[in-house]
Amino acid sequence: MSTLRDMDLPRIQKALSEIPLSPASSILLGLLLLVREGYKTDFPKVPKIRFVLGFRLFIGHLSSLGGRQKLNDATVFSIWGARLSSGVFQIRLGSQRNIVVDSWAAMKDLWVERNTSLLDRAHQKGYLDYIGVDISGSPTTEQIRKCRTSALKALGKPMWPYYCPLIEHNSVNFIKALYQKEKTERKLWRCTLAPTKGNGGATKILVAAKERQRCIDIFYGQYLQKVEDGETPTCIGSSLGADKLTLDEIHGTCMSLLQAAPGTVSSSVYQCCAWLCSPEGRPFQAEKIAFQQEKVPLVVSLYNETRRFFSTAAFNHRRASKEIHIYDTDPEHYGQDAFTFIPRRFMNDNTPTPQLSYGIGGRICPAWMISNWIMGETLTRLILAFEVKQVERTRLPNTDMIDFSDKYGLVAMPRSYDCAFVARDEKWLKSTSGVRSAGAVATHTRRIGEAEPAEARNYSSRSLKY
Question: In the CATH hierarchy, which top-level class contains the domain 152-444?
């Protein structure tokens, strides 16, 4: 015998139209239909996977998420997982049924052992409207597969020598701006914008723009103008064009690579500086290190620990038809000190992905290697050039694992703080960075994250190397 839940709506409507009903019966049936819609989900309940109780009709568990409890969503997931004593459980987000993976062992089994079964995914609403062709949030169609293949090729290590001048130019400008006490919050993000669209010229519109989208549109327009003029800009966009991608595909792929730039690079370096100027981080700065691309184990370990500990995006893109979340602080994997920031945690870890902020498997973020390179180079330059110190009677950095963000929900945004960058060797810094004149202390008070055009002068690619 079929139940009301099993019957589809057209059959119910047809049955009701053929049966004369009293007002009371109509109200009762209307309530039953309303309750049925309130319990309805896009997928039926998955057998043998525990379900989090306390959901509400129509909205599911949304009332507990999005920062409504002053907690990040990943923290709420970990609380639910502990309550259920399960590393895998299911929740409801509106009418969508989602599977939450809250343990390292379960994640490894899904993402590594069963990688091929998670390559595809359902269409994500909103991505097509704002990004267009999205290589991370779209189903694995032939077009997306072609764009991902081109992106991986464009971001591979053989292409890095072409991007090196762009990245080093902007990272040196960042150090120079700190030393000259200029506004520095816009410098670092250019390290991610420049390789993608190429160096842009200085325009008043770009300087005044505050919205990321407007900045990217300007870079994209400059790229198209150069292509129209017969130039071949040395950037990721040109590499994608060489693979016969259309302009829409190039723009969508670049947007996909850039959408996480403030969270991955800028916010991670920002929180690294917050920890470095804390009482725990000051002794770390005294370590004697030498710069060599991706070969400073202490710095590599530092940014990996920052990506793990200060999760600016404490979730991961869906890589299946159901939501899959990961909590990157599983004590069973990282030990009882999983909730403690330990910069040397990954010193002897030679695995390609010691922390999983970029995902893993066939849908891993294509820009994970170059993002690590940018962070490593920027942090090494900062530590070589400056001592990072707290400033008394100002906003102190927050290095709490959760409270470092002044936003709650899926994406974390580091709180603003004040710190001083004191030149280690002022004479050496002037001679190697092309600084004409500057003071000894620069104070960083704003959040890194907006784009600004590069300086007109091109600095040596080895200007801050020993």
Answer: mainly alpha
